[in-house]
Specification:
heterodimer; A: 112 residues; mainly beta; four-stranded antiparallel sheet; B: 115 residues; 12 strands; globular
Chain lengths: 112, 115
């Protein structure tokens, strides 16, 4: 069974640009969550989608957005990039609330 | 609000020695508790989980954890550490408020293993 797939693995952008990251969940998983990981703040919850609906959102500015498609694949978008957005962005999928979340290898975003 | 504290930022043990990583959580109801491990440049791998029932849970790679409600703790243990266990370990608590599902992670404990 294929795991969670995130693309691309690495991205380099400059301040002010925007970026879109992609996540394909494990087959059959309808819940997709996104997390940001930085050395200073650790792992922080961004948002969670289930059946194309955002059910919960963490404490991030509106520049961070996401969506989920009917096949459960998800994308997250960050607009007007700032240096502080440099991080590892992790996607996780799960079968349902309370079931373990399975993580992808992440997308490493670097802002110059 | 839910929170997780991992008091030890970095632990160094000798190969073959026993290991205990500490985790304390704060959550209003019965929590879902998890331990994940992360190797450099990779995502998080689930080691074990606690939902309910037996408070001693077994995981992969010889790890176990014990849920102690009275102490709000969920410590991870391994009787004999292998060099390949060197990695960063994260404790997480999951909530299902408002029908959603998010994990709150501790800051992590980095484990170094001396051959």
């Amino acid at each position: 069974k294929a795991g969670v797939t995130q693309t691309p693995r690495y991205l380099i952008k400059t301040r002010g640009q925007q970026v879109t990251l992609s996540c394909s969940p494990i087959s059959g998983h309808r819940s997709v969550s996104w997390y940001q990981q930085t050395p200073g703040q650790g792992l922080q919850f961004l948002f969670e989608y289930f059946s194309e609906t955002q059910r919960n959102k963490g404490n991030f500015p509106g520049r961070f957005s996401g969506r989920q498609f009917s096949n459960s694949r998800s994308e997250m978008n960050v607009s007007t990039l700032e240096l502080g957005d440099s991080a590892l962005y992790l996607c996780a999928s799960s079968l349902a609330v309370g079931q373990p979340q399975h993580f992808g290898d992440g997308t490493r975003l670097s802002i110059l | 609000a839910q929170s997780v504290t991992q008091p030890d930022i970095h632990i160094t043990v000798s190969e073959g020695a026993s290991l205990e990583l500490r985790c304390n959580y704060s959550y209003g109801a019965t929590p879902y508790l998890f331990w994940y491990v992360q190797s450099p440049g990779q995502g998080l791998q689930l080691l074990l989980k606690y939902f309910s029932g037996d408070t001693l849970v077994q995981g992969i790679k010889g790890f176990e954890a014990e849920f102690k409600r009275s102490q709000s703790s969920f410590n991870l243990r391994k009787p004999s550490v292998h060099w390949s266990d060197a990695a960063e370990y994260f404790c997480a608590v999951g909530g299902s408020g408002a029908g959603s599902y998010q994990l709150t992670f501790g800051k992590g404990t980095k484990l170094s293993v001396i051959p």
